[in-house]
Amino acid sequence: MRYRRMPIEVESPEQLGYGNIECNLAESSVSDGLFSQLGLKLDDLVLMYGDHLGKPELRAMIAGEGPLLHAEDVLLTVGAAAALFIVSTSLLEAGDRALVVFPNYATNIETPRQLGCQMDYFQLSFEGGFRIDVDALIARITPETKLVSVTCPHNPTGTMISENDLHRLVEAVENRGCRLLFDETYREMSFGTALPPAASLSQRVISVSSLSKTYGLPGIRTGWILCRDRSLMETFLAAKEQIFISNSVVDEEIAYQFLSRKAEHLERIRAHIDTNFGILKAWMGEQTDYEWVEPQGGVVCFPRIKPESGVDVEKFYSILNTVYKTWVGPGHWFESDRRHMRVGFGWPTADELTRGLNNITQALLAAKD
């Protein structure tokens, strides 16, 4: 496998240096948590190799989110990124066909592609509301399709599918003998009722999630794979053991103690998201050069500069970054037109979000031909 750095990582805020950014609207999570605010007790923790599957109590807690799920159906990984890598490298080989919703989080595309897979992209469009037409997606599954890859709530647009559509998609992969990879990292950020963990619906479904996005804990690198196919989980475990053996017991203990107070944390996080989304929605309502598809979940959206606006796109980014020191996720992070940009509204404070959005307005005006 040949590795190459992806633009979304090369140009990420952490690589550019947070000190160089005044308004960071490029993040795809809620605000990063401070260790001192978590009220954790780690003094008696033994720094040993942990259970290779992951801390049993933490796995049981995660499995409790869905019917028919058990601790044995959970494999803890180093963030969702490692989970996605394990799934792709365990299931796919050169020449296999993967049907992937596009645009998407870069790893869901890059890893299968570098393995030599035939990539069949299911293209979402602004004009179509970035909606996944499940009937059309099912129609694209061929006898050669080995994996169908869906992200919901979608990254970078924040759109969703209904629970009924999820059930129909699961039934389709069962009938056609392929697998469904369901990246549900933002599942608990749904603005309405959250979907059930997709892996709880079938042994042919693999769910991936983490504590990085909804809970703002990317620094502890804790994600997981959910799958009820025990034979496949044994393969995933073998992959994990060959890559990093086990997770950090420190990270797992932090995750366990944090999720033990999950309801308390979620109440605070959802209040913050609601406040910031209100700010974003009000600002979008005032725009004349900018348009969006309103997200239904998560903390990101994928607006675009109107084609008829007369805005010089490259000049816009230059002004936004250099004059206003404000960052968004440009469209090329998702192999899309740079008129699009991912705007994250969960990471900044309300004041920072307001300033960042106003900076976008000023940069758009300054970049007009």
How would you describe the overall organization of this protein?
This protein is an alpha/beta fold. The chain has 2 domains: 7-28 and 263-366, Alpha-Beta Complex (Aspartate Aminotransferase, domain 1); 42-260, 3-Layer(aba) Sandwich (Aspartate Aminotransferase, domain 2). Helices cover 36% and strands 15% of the residues. The protein contains 12 helices and 14 strands. It has helices spanning 7-10, 13-16, 56-63, 79-91, 106-114, 134-139, 163-176, 230-243, 249-259, 262-284, 313-323, 350-366, and strands at residues 23-24, 74-77, 97-102, 118-123, 145-151, 179-183, 205-210, 223-226, 290-291, 300-301, 304-305, 326-327, 329-330, 341-344. The strands form 4 sheets. It has a 7-stranded mixed β-sheet, with helices on both faces. A 3-stranded antiparallel β-sheet has the order 10-14-13, with no helix packed on it. Strand 5 (145-151), helix 7 and strand 6 (179-183) form a beta-alpha-beta unit. Helix 4 runs parallel beside helix 5 and helix 11 packs across helix 12 (350-366). The mean pLDDT is 95.
- Give the name of the CATH superfamily of the largest domain: Type I PLP-dependent aspartate aminotransferase-like (Major domain)
What's the helix count?
A: 12
Q: What structural class do you assign from the helix and strand content?
A: alpha/beta
State the low-pLDDT regions, or none. Answer: none
Number of domains: 2
Rg, alpha carbons: 20 Å
Instruction: Please report the first level of CATH classification, the CATH class of the largest domain.
Output: Alpha Beta
- The total of beta strands comes to 14
Shape: globular
Distance between the termini: 45 Å
The averaged pLDDT comes out at 95
**What is the string of SSEs from the N terminus onward?**
HHEHEHEHEHEHEEEHHHEEEHEEEH
Strand numbers in spatial order across the main sheet = 2-8-7-6-5-3-4
CATH architecture group name of the largest domain: 3-Layer(aba) Sandwich
In terms of DSSP E residues, the strand content is 5-15%
The percentage helix is 25-40%
The CATH topology of the largest domain corresponds to Aspartate Aminotransferase, domain 2
Largest sheet: 7 strands, mixed
